Each structure stands twice: as structure tokens, then as C-alpha cells.
């Protein structure tokens, strides 16, 4: 059930701040700013290597961020929430994922950034910015973090789950750089976009559901 006594605060301002940061990042990427070039080179030098174990891990783990995989995971989460009659959370999940991935398609075709001109270790088509794997995983696991905060009461399990959920998009983003299908700035932009939509989506949930419940309890 929702913690109506002390629900998390509205995230509209945080969402607005992330929107501005994401917009600035997108402008820098689309203009091929020197800062972005240096950022990409620095991260690539830190991340990429030819270690067979790392290559095997990256080529396997990156599949967890595939569009089809994220879609299946989202549908499963949506069904679970519906079964347990957590309808507002189910629509929060569906709405946030649809908005994030739909907007990602628009931005990809607006920026039209080509993928890195090196040998790709896995197949990837379409434009490079932002990373769809990073957007989808940041949005989905960001939603799971929100649901964990709202629904899990035990502090140990809440902390453990939040750490686990946070690691998934970080590792998926890492693999997209490692397998040479995205620039680091694509991945970072994807994380910014995914987090932005989670914050804005939760703000809608907060205003249209949690505050209503609080008002009903006070009536």
C-alpha cells in the first residue's frame, strides 16, 4: 500500500532540472562540441579493452537492455501490478515507459548521430544518440526504484533492491560502450532521459493519486 503518512515528495522540480540538463546535453552532442569529443575519448579509454572475459560479459549482458527484453519486462511488471490491484502504479509504469521510449525515437531522428565508426561487437542499427538501451533500462529500473521506495517497508530489503535496480542501467550502459555501438555521451544522455521521465511520471502519480488519497484520509 502507499505510504500516505509520509509519501516521497513531488519530483516535478527535479524533473524540470533534469529536463534542462538533458536538453543542454543534447545540444552539445548535436553540435559535436569539443567537450563531448573529449568526454567520449576519455571514457572509451577507461572502459574498453580486449579481455575475453569482459568481451563475453558485455556481449551477453547487453541483451538485457534490448527493446524486446525491456518490453517483456515492462509487460510482466504491469501485469503483476494489475493482479495486485495497484492500478495507479501500473499506469505510472506503462505511461512512463511509453513516453520515454516514444520520445527517444523522436530525438534519435532529430539529432541523427551516426554510431561509432569502429567494428561493432554486436549488431546495432539506427542512430546513436541517445542510447535506447540506456533510456529503456534507466526508465524501467528507475520505476522499480520508485515502486520499491513506495511499497517496501523493510529498510534492509528496500536498500538492497534499490542498489540492485540502480546497477542494471549502469552495467547495461557500460556494455553499450564496450561493444562499440554507442559513444559514452549517448549512454549518459540515455540515462538523463530515462531518469527525467521517471521523475516527471512520478510527479503525475503524486498529484493525481497520492494527494487525492491524503485528502480522502483528512476528510
UniProtKB/TrEMBL annotation:
Top-level taxonomic group: Bacteria
Phosphatidic acid phosphatase type 2/haloperoxidase domain ranges (all copies): 90-202
Keywords, ordered alphabetically: Membrane, Transmembrane, Transmembrane helix
Matches recorded under InterPro entries: PAP2/HPO, PAP2/HPO_sf
CDD domains associated with the record: PAP2_like_2
Cited Pfam families: PAP2 (PF01569)
Coiled coil ranges: none
SMART domains per record: acidPPc
Residues passing through the membrane, by range: 12-31, 64-84, 89-107, 127-152, 159-179, 191-210
Leader sequence segment: none
Listed name of the protein: Phosphatase PAP2 family protein
Amino acid at each position: 500500500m502507499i505510504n500516505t503518512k509520509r509519501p516521497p515528495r513531488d519530483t516535478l522540480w527535479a524533473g524540470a532540472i533534469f529536463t534542462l540538463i538533458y536538453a543542454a546535453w543534447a545540444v552539445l552532442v548535436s553540435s559535436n562540441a569539443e567537450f563531448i569529443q573529449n568526454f567520449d575519448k576519455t571514457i572509451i579509454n577507461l572502459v574498453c579493452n580486449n579481455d575475453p572475459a569482459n568481451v563475453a560479459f558485455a556481449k551477453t549482458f547487453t541483451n538485457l537492455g534490448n527493446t524486446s527484453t525491456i518490453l517483456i519486462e515492462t509487460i510482466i511488471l504491469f501485469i503483476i501490478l494489475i493482479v495486485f490491484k495497484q492500478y495507479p502504479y501500473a499506469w505510472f509504469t506503462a505511461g512512463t515507459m511509453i513516453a520515454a521510449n516514444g520520445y527517444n525515437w523522436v530525438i534519435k531522428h532529430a539529432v541523427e548521430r551516426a554510431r561509432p565508426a569502429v567494428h561493432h561487437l554486436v549488431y546495432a542499427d539506427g542512430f546513436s544518440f541517445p542510447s535506447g538501451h540506456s533510456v529503456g533500462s534507466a526508465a524501467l529500473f528507475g520505476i522499480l526504484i520508485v515502486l520499491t521506495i513506495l511499497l517496501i517497508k523493510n529498510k534492509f530489503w528496500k536498500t538492497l533492491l534499490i542498489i540492485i535496480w540502480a546497477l542494471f542501467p549502469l552495467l547495461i550502459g557500460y556494455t553499450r560502450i564496450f561493444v562499440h555501438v554507442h559513444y559514452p555521451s549517448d549512454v549518459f544522455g540515455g540515462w538523463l532521459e530515462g531518469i527525467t521521465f521517471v521523475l516527471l511520471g512520478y510527479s503525475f502519480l503524486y498529484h493525481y493519486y497520492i494527494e487525492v488519497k491524503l485528502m480522502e484520509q483528512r476528510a
